[in-house]
Write a structure and sequence with these properties.
Mean pLDDT of chain A: 90
Number of strands of chain B: 8
Distance between the termini of chain B: 52 Å
Distance between the termini of chain A: 39 Å
Radius of gyration of chain B: 22 Å
Mean pLDDT of chain B: 74
Order of helices and strands of chain A: HHHHHHHHHHHHHH
Shape of chain B: elongated
Low-confidence stretches of chain A: 1-11
Oligomer: heterodimer
Number of helices of chain A: 14
Helix content of chain A: over 70%
Largest interface: A-B, 37 and 37 residues
Number of domains of chain A: 1
Order of helices and strands of chain B: HHHHHHEHHEHEEEHEHEE
Number of helices of chain B: 11
CATH topology of the largest domain in chain B: Translation Initiation Factor IF3
CATH architecture of chain A: Up-down Bundle
Helix content of chain B: 25-40%
Structural class of chain B: alpha/beta
CATH class of the largest domain in chain B: Alpha Beta
């Protein structure tokens, strides 16, 4: 096969665009971690509480969704080999998403539902713009690899999650949805977690792990199991949650099989890696992957009715969102952000002047501290919310918050290269000096 | 520390006369340290250092610094030096051989590899010598050595690019960056293309389309074409644009 391709001049990805999303996401992560200690009394009770809904959406939309959408503007060119169709549209989309997420979190916190509907509609607009940009970027795309298919599945999940969320918000103002509130809410949560975030993580990590671990790509059949497990399992699980309880178990089992295939591929890639030492970014993602076991086990326990109750459900959410997803995203950020900053600041100087390596931009001691605190904090939080003791939950929240602050400080140390470079450019430009 | 004492012993047992015979400039270095070549030519370096009250380490250090850099390594710009510091790897008990060989495999046109190690890696000389690499050793301290590996027959200066071992054909050179962690492939390519002469072509073998590299190439006035001759191999052909 021979496909000559010459990208348009200037069609290269802007590192500032994903950085904007990632910086905002990291800020949301810090806020969410700080808020855990504050809402400790609510966390010791039932999860259906306006403050907990605000915290959940700060984490799922502000931290997780903004991270993935931002990273996709870098990942799209790298793993799919396609430039972003319109960076201008993406910049607009960022502000729409940021405003709508802030609005949703605030309205959840205040329990003001008409405002929530407006913010949710704005969020749906932002997501529609992202999907439009993506669709235009992928026009004529032919290489439907596992990663490309998984990302497509994830984006379908995102669109459905946003519509479902909008319907739930509207339902608060004018009830129209059939069925009980909590099962519908569970379906929304699982659609977001398993329909949107999970396939994105499965797909992206299948390309990113080999890239950074210097390992072979995972076996194709493992990819197929992941795709089919999610594509078949999630709709069945959702149908079980909202209508036919008998479908919950088969749906959950299909997702468990997909998750096991993902875990198997991660273990395989880690074992066959050529890279002898792991940096902290990789340790974060691998620690996140290790959380799959307790998260999946708890989820399966809930599906089998071996476990039940709002506290176990909260612990399940902490293990899945705070453990698997958050640590994976944090690890990816510790790889992506230094690359983007290095590319923006030092890329143009390579071959012309000495430049630091990407590793020299990072701060391993801060990253190690963040890793220890966030891992410990997540385990403590999952345990303490299951026990329902406010004081212990608050303690776990403090550990988590310190970890998030250390993580943010590690990112800030990288970002200061960008700030210093921008300062030099501001001084140099009026004098007609070209940097580099 | 695991330190190979043999090179040190060899030096210790060499006489002042032998050293000056091999490197006449060393006479001045030793004279500065109070070692007289005329009267003490028969003394070993260890004896001469002891007689002059100079630490042997300091004497060897000065002589090592004095050793003339080969012509191929004079004026090698920073951009063409690939530095690999393996001291931390060895301190951790790690094995840096894979890193070194990975760096060697992807060494660009006319580039030199500078390995920094806590001891003189004598076995490496033989391994890389068989691959056509000459070396020049710089002893910075007893536990700090810099070894410059360069392609023996090819001058490291001048504008004419030297095709990488085994792959070059005429004015086309091949740079294989597969299996390197980002952004190392981009770094290697950008280092090499600075030395590409007009009309010459660099073929980069990559494991994916280097989307972040393209804007850098265009900004520097290079033209490029990409194809995928087989799954898992992306080939990018780069040459200078006509305007430059």
């Amino acid at each position: 096969m021979s496909m000559p391709l010459r990208p348009r001049p200037g069609a290269g990805p802007s590192p500032v665009l994903p950085l904007r999303f990632l910086a905002a996401a990291a800020a949301a992560y810090v806020l969410a971690a700080l808020a855990v200690a504050w809402v400790a009394p609510e966390l010791s009770g039932h999860y259906y509480h306006p403050r907990l809904l605000a915290l959940t959406h700060l984490a799922t939309l502000g931290w997780i969704t903004l991270s993935i959408l931002g990273a996709s503007y870098q990942i799209l060119p790298i793993v799919l080999g396609r430039p972003v169709w319109s960076e201008r549209l993406a910049r607009w989309q960022f502000w729409i998403l940021a405003a709508s997420i802030a609005g949703m979190v605030a309205h959840f916190h205040l329990a003001t539902w008409p405002g929530l509907v407006a913010a949710a509609a704005l969020l749906a607009t932002g997501i529609t713009l992202h999907l439009l940009n993506l669709a235009m970027s992928l026009r004529g795309f032919r290489q439907w690899t596992f990663t490309a298919r998984a990302m497509l599945l994830g984006y379908a999940g995102l669109a459905l999650t946003a519509l479902f969320g909008l319907a739930l918000a509207a339902n608060r103002v004018r009830p129209f949805l059939p069925g009980s509130l909590l099962p519908t809410l569970h379906a929304h949560v699982h659609l977001a977690l398993l329909g949107w975030v999970t396939p994105m993580v499965f797909g992206v990590m299948a390309r990113v792990y080999p890239l950074f671990l210097l390992s072979p790509e995972p076996a194709a059949w493992l990819g197929r199991v992941q795709l089919w497990g999610v594509a078949v399992g999630v709709p069945i699980l959702l149908a079980g949650l909202v209508a036919v309880p008998g479908l919950i178990l088969p749906g959950a089992l299909a997702v468990v099989v997909a998750t096991a295939a993902h875990a198997g591929s991660v273990i395989d890639m880690t074992r066959r890696r050529k890279r002898p030492a792991l940096d902290w970014g990789l340790r974060f993602t691998l620690t996140g992957a290790a959380f799959l076991l307790p998260a999946t086990g708890t989820g399966l326990g809930l599906a089998l009715d071996l476990l039940s109750g709002p506290r176990v459900a909260l612990a399940y959410a902490v293990l899945a969102l705070g453990g698997w997803i958050s640590l994976t995203i944090a690890g990816m950020m510790l790889k992506i952000v230094p690359f983007l900053v290095w590319y923006r600041v030092y890329g143009p100087r390579v071959g012309r002047a000495p430049v630091p390596t990407m590793a020299q931009l990072s701060s391993p001691p801060l990253e190690a501290l963040a890793h220890a605190l966030l891992t410990t904090g997540t385990v403590l939080l999952a345990t303490t919310v299951a026990l329902g003791e406010t004081a212990w939950i608050r303690g776990a929240g403090v550990v988590l918050a310190l970890g998030a602050l250390a993580f943010a400080a590690a990112l800030a140390r990288v970002l200061r290269h960008l700030i210093a470079s921008a300062r030099v450019e501001r001084v140099a430009a009026p004098a007609g000096i070209r940097v580099p | 520390m695991d330190h190979n004492p043999k090179p040190l012993l060899d030096q210790f047992q060499r006489t002042v006369g032998e050293v000056v015979r091999d490197d006449p400039g060393a006479r001045e270095v030793m004279a500065d340290m109070g070692i007289n070549h005329c009267c003490g030519a028969h003394l070993t370096l260890g004896e001469a250092a002891g007689a002059a009250g100079v630490p042997l380490d300091a004497l060897l250090d000065a002589l090592s610094r004095r050793r003339e850099r080969p012509a191929a390594l004079r004026d090698v710009p920073e951009a063409r030096q690939v530095h690999l510091d393996v001291r931390a790897d060895i301190a951790r008990g790690g094995e840096p051989f894979v890193r070194i060989m990975t760096a060697v495999r992807s060494l660009g046109i006319g580039a030199v590899l500078v390995v920094r190690a806590p001891f003189e890696p004598v076995p490496l000389y033989d391994v890389l010598g068989k691959r056509g690499f000459a070396h020049w050793t710089e002893r910075r301290a007893a536990d700090d050595w810099s070894i410059w590996f360069y392609r023996g027959a090819a001058p490291a200066t001048g504008n004419a690019p030297t095709p990488p071992v085994g792959d070059g054909r005429g004015d086309r050179s091949v740079l294989d960056v597969r299996g390197l962690e980002p952004p190392e492939p981009m770094v290697r390519v950008l280092q090499v293309i600075e030395w590409l002469t007009p009309g010459a072509e660099l073929e980069v073998r990559h494991d994916r389309r280097p989307t972040f590299l393209y804007p850098q190439l265009e900004e520097r006035g290079f033209v490029h074409e990409t194809d995928e001759p087989e799954p898992g191999l992306v080939r990018i052909r780069i040459r200078r644009g006509e305007s430059r």
